[in-house]
Amino acid sequence: MARIKPKSGYEFLQSVGKDKFRTFLRLCANYNTIGSFLGTMKDSSKNDLMSEFVSNLDNTLEGDLEGATDVANSFGSITDSNLMKNIVETIRLNREEDSVQNNVKGFKIYDILYAMLTYSSDSLTKKLGIPPITIMPYNQLINDSGEVVQQVFFYGDTDGKGVFNSFVNGFGAPNWKVKRSENWVTISSIKGKPVVIYCNVPHDEPNDEMAQNALQEFLDSSDIAPTVIIHRGHSYHLSTTLDHINYRHKVVILGACGAYQNLSAVLSQSEDAHIVSTKQIGVGKINGPIIRAFNQRLLEGKDINWVEMWAELSKQFSSGEMKQLFDDYVPPFKNMGALFLKAYRRSGIANESME
Question: CB of 136 within 8 A of CB of 251?
Fold first, then answer.
């Protein structure tokens, strides 16, 4: 931003022939910086650029659905109401044009995007034929024994060991008991509803991954299927955690920097998962309170109402650096890219179009 001055962002893109401008805007949206970039432009330039960004999404060169997912991801980062009105109108016009031309794939893309911007959360999920995005029912998280089982991944670098110790030490009497073994720790609730949390011990690398695999083998051989998976580690470890995700996981909490970029990878393994992630820096000062608030609801046997929970958390992080960090975290009901992918995969042409 400093180096393009005195040019506007629009002039900068023009100077490079708008080369891969969609990818650039996607990255801005994914890292929650698109607002400041667009803020350098005149209103007319912003409208022209975003109209081009949201047009011809069934013909983008970046990938089959990548362009449309990028547009959906950008919705949550744009606060300019007049710009959003222009985007909605452009999407509506593209939707109508594809309908007239009998472009089935294009119409489906724009029909979903238009609904995302014009329907309330409850009516939206009904229209798109997807499960609710604001609430994860408690009864979908419990197993046949009435337990909510979680699996937490830790890694053996210095930061990982510190986070592990802080995490485990946060559980104790009177609500929890902690049982330690060589490769994992089992945390079980004493009061309230039954919750069991399995955490691998972050041995020195590469033995941390050995501990993860040992825990996984124990869970598989014991027919224990966690419905919650949590990543506590740097982003360069995230792919290892993602390899363990399966269709049984209903809630996925990714506390790594920039983990928001991995929505598609999660949904390819568990298409209805509710995902918590951050577009920017993942920090324990935010991850910890999110996990504690989540577990408190489980102990009380409550459905996870993400809107209510997020509103309560926002009061803890109401100013300064903590507010800035928390604002980069994305709850399930604001995962617009994930919502688009879920809806498209459920549409009648999804399989045909994605082959």
Answer: yes
